[in-house]
């Protein structure tokens, strides 16, 4: 794909105090597409089925043709999970390129943020019980922040969240990052060139994060050729 302009991107993941790392990322550039499709999944639970579900969902979503759109990517991930069998499930966020930006789709509490070079802006709204009650000005408990109302396996098409962003960079995270690090800390860490994803993950674990932490950071496009920096990504058993 000579001549295609790709941004630099970085991904990193670390296992928190869990039995396994059930997060997964995938990136795929289909011939003729305007860029790279990115997907980040977080397996529901702490067992091998959760890890397989995350890997399967992320791969199926990232390989969806751009012409079909990011909602179709979520539904393709759902079909792949159901064909896999078992009960494994995951939450998922997909960023699909179009001219000048990305179209986003998600289920659960995996997040996408826009990055303007100095600060992030959240593009997604968590599908959790806490967010459901918070949006209705009703009381909720801290535990509800981790109880998702949609997932890859269970979502219906109309429940899939959508958004888009034009220009700038992009950040995808699992909740082991964004529910530990406040936005100001994320801004500071992303400002360290070449260390964005790794710095987010390392800091989330270092300050006592209780979950696996995964980040995928797409820098603002500045180069003419594909250039990828990838930290070691532990795969679930």
From TrEMBL:
Residues annotated as signal peptide: none
Xref: InterPro entries: PPM-type-like_dom_sf, PPM-type_phosphatase-like_dom
Domain of life: Bacteria
Residue span(s) of domain PPM-type phosphatase: 8-220
Protein name, per record: Protein phosphatase
Coiled-coil ranges (or none): none
